[in-house]
């Protein structure tokens, strides 16, 4: 067994382990008005004064729409085996309903062909937060019809790409879509209605189930259908019963609200009890839980940092240190009596504590939660204040150490019996980081936003060596 606590000890992975990187459409594509694309909620949100840092938008982003061939060539040069990207719904189906725009689909066909020509496995995420604005105008995710529109969209994309793409993810981080979008308002569409956020969560679950069924109806049986959850590792501040109850409350809102129906066909009873003052859940119709509880071929886990919580006075007005942006409105419905605490340790530029033990804990939880279900780490990474040196290089040893620590945690989980089959670094390159604008750099590849020139950072070279050899280079070997 490798000694993953000692960076000097070789950490090797199974030969079939998949080494990838991930991005999302609105964060990198640009070309927001080309080839029939219409606004998504993120176009509207980012153009609303005060919603993003410096008023920055994804109008150009890193211009991947026009530079995708060069970007794929760079992936191949680095040695990546897989690339996870998302489809822009409003590029493919501009109003969120009706026939597809072929020029939009053609972009993704060309991208997939380019990846396959370079022996890079494409992994498609259907929804990474960019709902067509017309669907939001009709009510958005709190409305049931949005789930059925998603299923129609899933079928369109599945028919177009299912013959060449084998890895499919329905939703990315539905927690963010529901609770940052509709409760705290720090993400698009920027609404602050806690009851609506719970309705949104249910309809995102329904969209996942309907979308998974739609994909399977039009794709070869060999294709993998999964979902990516940003499940939280929620730790109580103490073993006091009140703190344990607070941790359970947040665990239900962060995790059980999605994995309950998706994996087990039921919401946690404790979630119903805790939120009874906001909703009676009458929008959960007969048959919904069966529709949501579709068999999965794999589960994607996104991990960045753990949460530390305790009981608190609901009237206290202390800052909410949950790492999910500044807002007077909480993304945790019916949990105003829960306090979040900064966990100890070094932090990334996002202010998130670096704790690889949380990733190991998360993997082992889902190994027990869904025995026999293969796992992929579909996002993991760190933002740092990267700069180009006088030698034209970008040295980011902190990110290398971060990756070594977290990949070692993945390997330790495999040793402990987890079926983890791949890892997608977030992110392939610097990009538009949502409400933070361009100020937070998560990329392994540096992007000069003035020229859009790409420069692989030290971490990109390090990760590329790991991908090619199946073993983690020493942290100093950069």
Question: Care to describe what's here?
Answer:
With 478 residues, the protein is of the alpha/beta class. It has a single domain (18-469), classed as TIM Barrel. It is 38% helix and 14% strand. The protein contains 15 helices and 15 strands. The protein has helices at residues 25-28, 41-46, 64-78, 89-92, 102-117, 133-137, 145-161, 174-182, 194-218, 241-264, 269-274, 288-292, 356-369, 397-415, 458-469, and strands at residues 11-12, 18-22, 82-86, 121-127, 167-172, 224-229, 234-236, 299-302, 307-311, 338-341, 375-380, 420-426, 445-447, 454-456, 471-472. An eight-stranded parallel beta barrel has the order 2-3-4-5-6-8-11-12, surrounded by five helices. A three-stranded mixed sheet has the order 7-9-10, covered by helices on one side. It has a two-stranded antiparallel ribbon with strand order 1-15. The longest helix is centred in the middle third of the chain and has 25 residues, at 194-218. The protein is globular. The chain starts with 10 loop residues before the first strand and ends in a 6-residue tail after the last strand. The model is unreliable at 1-7 (pLDDT under 50).
Count of structural domains? 1
Helix and strand element order: EEHHHEHHEHHEHHEEHHHEEEHEHEEEHE
Kindly name the structural category: alpha/beta
What can be said about the biggest beta sheet?
A: 8 strands, parallel, barrel
* Strand count: 15
Mean pLDDT: 96
CATH class: Alpha Beta
How are the strands of the biggest sheet laid out side by side? Answer: 2-3-4-5-6-8-11-12
Please give the count of helices: 15
Q: Kindly state the percentage of residues in helix.
A: 25-40%
Cα shape: globular
Low-confidence stretches: 1-7
- Beta-strand portion reads 5-15%
CATH architecture: Alpha-Beta Barrel
Distance between the ends? 25 Å
What is the CATH third-level topology name? TIM Barrel
Q: What's the alpha carbon Rg, rounded to whole Å?
A: 21 Å
CATH superfamily: Glycosidases
GO cellular component, one term: cytosol
Binding site for substrate: 27, 128, 172, 304, 426, 433-434
EC number: 3.2.1.21
InterPro entries: GH, GH_1_N_CS, Glyco_hydro_1, Glyco_hydro_1_AS, Glyco_hydro_1_beta-glucosidase
């Amino acid at each position: 067994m490798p000694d993953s606590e000692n960076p000097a000890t070789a950490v090797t992975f199974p030969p079939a382990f998949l080494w990838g990187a991930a991005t999302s459409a609105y964060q990198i594509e640009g070309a927001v008005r080309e080839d029939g694309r219409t606004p998504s909620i993120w176009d509207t949100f980012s153009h609303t004064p005060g919603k993003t840092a410096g008023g920055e938008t994804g109008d150009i982003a890193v211009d991947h729409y026009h530079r995708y061939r060069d970007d794929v060539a760079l992936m191949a040069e680095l040695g990546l085996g897989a690339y996870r990207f998302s489809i822009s719904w409003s590029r493919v189906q501009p109003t969120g309903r009706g026939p597809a725009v072929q020029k939009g689909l053609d972009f993704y066909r060309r991208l997939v062909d380019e990846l396959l020509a370079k022996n890079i496995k494409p992994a498609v995420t259907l929804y990474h937060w960019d709902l067509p604005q017309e669907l939001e105008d009709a009510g958005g995710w709190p409305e049931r019809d949005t789930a059925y529109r998603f299923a129609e969209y899933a079928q369109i994309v599945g028919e177009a790409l299912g013959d060449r793409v084998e890895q499919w993810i329905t939703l990315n981080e539905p927690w963010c879509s529901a609770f940052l979008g509709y409760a705290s308002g720090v993400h698009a569409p920027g609404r602050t209605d806690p009851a609506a956020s719970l309705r949104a969560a249910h309809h995102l679950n329904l969209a996942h189930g309907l979308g998974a069924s739609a994909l399977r109806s039009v794709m070869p049986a060999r294709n993998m259908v999964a979902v990516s959850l940003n499940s939280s590792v929620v730790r109580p501040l103490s073993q006091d019963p009140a703190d344990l109850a607070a941790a359970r409350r947040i665990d239900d809102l962060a995790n059980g609200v999605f994995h309950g129906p998706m994996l087990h066909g039921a919401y946690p009873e404790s979630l119903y009890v805790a939120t009874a003052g906001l909703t009676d859940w009458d929008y959960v119709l007969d048959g919904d839980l069966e529709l949501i509880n579709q068999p999965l071929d794999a589960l994607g886990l996104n991990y960045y940092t753990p949460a530390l919580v305790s009981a608190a006075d609901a009237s206290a007005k202390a800052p909410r240190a949950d790492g999910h942006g500044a807002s007077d409105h909480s993304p945790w419905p019916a949990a105003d009596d829960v306090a979040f605490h900064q966990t100890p340790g070094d932090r990334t530029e996002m202010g998130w504590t670096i704790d690889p033990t949380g990733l190991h804990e998360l993997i082992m939880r889902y190994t027990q939660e869904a025995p026999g279900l293969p796992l992929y780490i579909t996002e993991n990474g760190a933002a740092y204040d990267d700069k180009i040196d006088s030698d034209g290089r970008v040295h980011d040893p902190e990110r290398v150490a971060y990756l070594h620590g977290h990949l070692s945690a993945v390997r330790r989980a495999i040793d402990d019996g987890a079926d983890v089959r791949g890892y997608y670094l977030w992110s392939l390159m610097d990009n538009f980081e949502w409400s933070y604008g361009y100020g937070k750099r998560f990329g392994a590849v540096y992007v000069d936003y003035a020229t859009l020139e790409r420069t692989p950072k030290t971490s990109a070279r390090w990760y590329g060596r790991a991908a090619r050899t199946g073993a983690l280079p020493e942290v100093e070997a950069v």
